[in-house]
Amino acid sequence: MVLNPSQGVVDLFTSPNIQFSLDREGEEPIYRQLIRHIKTQIDSGVLPTGTRLPASRDLAQHLNISRISVVNAYAELRAEGYLSAHAGRGTFVAKDNGGSSSPPEKSPTQPDLTNATPDRSLREMMRLARQPGIINFGPGAPPIELLPTQFLKEAINAVIDRDGAKALGYEMTEGYGPLRTAVRDYVTALGIQCSASDVLITGGTQQALDLVIQALVSEGETIVTEAPTYIGMIDIIQTRRIQAQGVATDEEGIRLDHLENYLIEHAPKLIYVMPTYQNPTGMVMPLHRRRQLINLAVEYNTPILEDAVYHEFRFEGDSIPPLKALDESGIVIHASGFTKMLLPGIRIGYLIANGTHYNRLVRVKQAADISTPGLNQRTIHWMLERGVMAQQLERNNREFKRRRDIALAAAKKYLPAGTKWKTPEGGLYLWVTLPRNGPTAAELYISAIQVGVGYAIGNVFYPQNPDNFTIRLNYGAHRPAEIEEGFRRLGATWRELAAEYAEIEKSPLL
Ligand SMILES: Cc1ncc(COP(=O)(O)O)c(C=O)c1O
Questions:
Q1: Which CATH number fits domain 5-109: 3.90.550.10, 2.115.10.20, 1.10.10.10, 2.60.40.1180?
Q2: pLDDT digits 0-9 by tens, 477-500
Q3: 94, 42 in Cβ contact below 8 A?
């Protein structure tokens, strides 16, 4: 039976004319089946213009599917002009699209989510925010307008004038000698005792992480990460076909009681952590926990991979030494880079490792790409020597603090009551937990995109057991006016959706 809109909410699934059955085992994602079915009903006139559709929550319950499937289906149908949503009133068949009129072409920026796994479809959803005009808090990049473009130009010219063709040949796999020495000097200032021969130059920090996984972990073996963790490590884990166990975190970082249990029971190959300005949470592991973590790793003879890419992004709080500076036994491998700090596109990262780890890493690096481009290494070396990075860091951190303060004020002003976050003392990110009585982060996302704001859906940062209400906002990459406006839109969209859910809960059921 199909109800007249004035009588209440339409029943989408008992039309006398159209049969619908969900294929739960098939290749086609549920939400796409739903889209197909609703389109057929609209195109055939079974659902005339103005018909009100059931609330996502009700439809999900009725069909025994996840609410995100319904929300995604409605959102895509809205984007295609089939449906329209009215705050507090619900979702309706759009006026200009009833019966025979054909829907607009699918936007080329819209991802094809067919056959996507849940994790992949969230990532695909996040690509929606790459359209021009969207205030996108999603990506992890530093602000492009602060990159030292002029210095780079000078540096490249100076290096070519100085070294000529030598700058363009193969480098040693371990890295350009003077840069390895400069890295040694740089990390020594952070408290790390090492020699230039412990430094391996890599293609960004990402490659540094990947090399460690390749060197130490074989297919099918397991590593431990914080939960949530860096999405790029999840990518490595998946592409290298290894397993990851996320260990819960608290205010001080990875929970050592949980970690110890896991070490005892499963003997993982590696512990991967970001002790300072963790991505995505912004958390800082205090000194005492750093020491305990190292002790535990030594006790269970499990190497630690320390990702310190944000270590220098401090605008408040005490400076705490990296794990590698506290490591007397060589159990810690330290990874970082001059990407976030200086120039992401020049792709210079490094590893600090001792002994057998180091030799193995060099072999893997050689197999991967022979060496990191010499011109890039020499250019970064030139900039380090002239203090460009120190200057850049100082300026960036001042600006990040300003943007952090604006983000916090905007969060307080615009995000709904019950939203939670921790004040980051460094780094680029605000990690937010939405109130649990409203839309999930993925549900909110599609509506947020429609009003021109994007963010990273928290689920993508968990190796397992995600928290559906978390989001990561990169405030560092945006100018103050954009931060204010983006947070305003986000708060308004959350309220609209929450009101829609509340209203629909009151309306007659299917
Ligand atoms: C925690 C963390 N590690 C590593 C990377 C990779 O950085 P790079 O650009 O140096 O490869 C990122 C980039 O987002 C990151 O957030």
A1: 1.10.10.10
A2: 999 999 999 999 999 999 999 987
A3: no
Calpha distance 315→394 (Å, rounded): 9
Name the average pLDDT for the chain. Answer: 88
| DSSP label of 365 | H
Q: Is 140 in the pocket of ligand 1 (CB under 6 A)?
A: yes
What is the CB-side half-sphere exposure of residue 246 using CA atoms within 13 A?
19
Query: CA torsion, points 89, 95, 100, 101, in degrees to nearest 10?
Result: -120
Res. 96 pLDDT band, cuts 50 70 90: low
CB-based burial, 152-181: b 16+ in 10 Å, e otherwise: bebbbeebbeebeeebeeebebbbbeebbb
Type of residue numbered 45: G
Do 227 and 462 meet the contact criterion of CB atoms below 8 Å apart? Answer: yes
State residue 58's pLDDT score.
Answer: 83
Does ligand 1 lie within 6 Å of residue 354's CB atom?
Answer: no
Q: How many CB atoms lie within 10 A of CB 291?
A: 13
Percent helix, percent strand, percent coil in the chain, to nearest 5: 45, 15, 40
Return the domain boundaries, the chain: 5-109, 126-140+391-506, 149-386
Q: 494: CA distance to ligand 1 center in Å?
A: 30
d(CA 299, CA 256): 13
Residue-wise DSSP of 405-431 = HHHHHHHHHHSPTT-EE---SBSSEEE
Angle in degrees, CA 147, 194, 168, rounded to 5 = 50
Could you report the per-residue pLDDT of 444-455, keeping only the tens digit for each? 998 999 899 999
**Alpha-carbon distances of 44 from 31, 180, 379, rounded to whole Å:** 20, 68, 63
pLDDT for residue 510: 40
| pLDDT score of 229 | 97
Whether domain 149-386 has CATH 3.20.20.80: the reply is no
Burial of 113 (0-12, 13-18, 19+ CB in 10 A): middle
Question: What's the token pair of residue 278?
Answer: 């963790």
For the Cβ of 344 lying below 6 angstroms from any atom of ligand 1, the answer is yes
State what percent of residues in the chain have pLDDT above 90: 70
| pLDDT at residue 505, rounded to an integer | 57
Q: Where is average pLDDT lowest: 107-111, 165-169, 276-280, 454-458?
A: 107-111
pLDDT reported for residue 88: 62
Cβ atoms of residues 58 and 504 within 8 Å: yes
Q: Is the domain 126-140+391-506 a CATH 3.90.870.10 member?
A: no
Mean of pLDDT values over 148-156: 97
Using the atom order of ligand 1, give the atom closest to the CA of residue 336.
Answer: 10
pTM of the model: 0.81
Measure 233 CA to ligand 1 centroid, in angstroms: 9
Pocket flag, ligand 1, residue 282 (CB < 6 Å): no
